[in-house]
Amino acid sequence: MTEKQMEKLAEIIFQKLLTRQAEFDKQFIEQVKQSGGSLEIDYNDEVFGLSEKQILQKKIAELSKLLSQHEENEEYNKAAEVHDKLNKLIDKLEKL
């Protein structure tokens, strides 16, 4: 097997693992919800199957929109909190 074939096989296996893990995560979350528990992190269908980079980009876009809303409403304390979170996510994204 050539190096290129091994890389292709590894990528196929990795994608299948990601898909399967997403299915297990969904099942786990449903079980937690049904049992009346809660999750500290807000997982939803929009983040399953996305890379960490894509998730960070999505969160940054959401926080940017929220920051603008707080600034428009002159809620400067809330805007400052969102700004801090936004900077942390941007730093994390840049390190990827």
Report on the structure:
- The protein is mainly alpha-helical.
- The chain folds into 2 domains: 44 residues, no CATH class; 47 residues.
- 76% of the residues lie in helices and 0% in strands.
- α2 runs antiparallel to α3.
- It is flat.
- The mean pLDDT is 80.
Task: Give the helix/strand layout.
Blueprint: H1 3-34, H2 52-72, H3 76-95
Number of strands: 0
Number of domains: 2
> How many helix segments?
3
Percent range of helical residues: over 70%
Residue stretches low in confidence (pLDDT < 50, at least 5 long) are none
**Computed Rg:** 18 Å
Q: Structural class given helices, strands, pairing? A: mainly alpha
The percentage of residues in β strands lies in: under 5%
Mean pLDDT: 80
Q: How far is the N terminus from the C terminus?
A: 31 Å
Shape: flat
Element string (H = helix, E = strand): HHH
Quick gist of this model?
Helix content is 76%, strand content 0%. It contains three helices and no strands. It is flat, with a radius of gyration of 18 Å.
Question: What key phrases describe this protein's structure?
Answer:
96 residues; flat; 76% helix
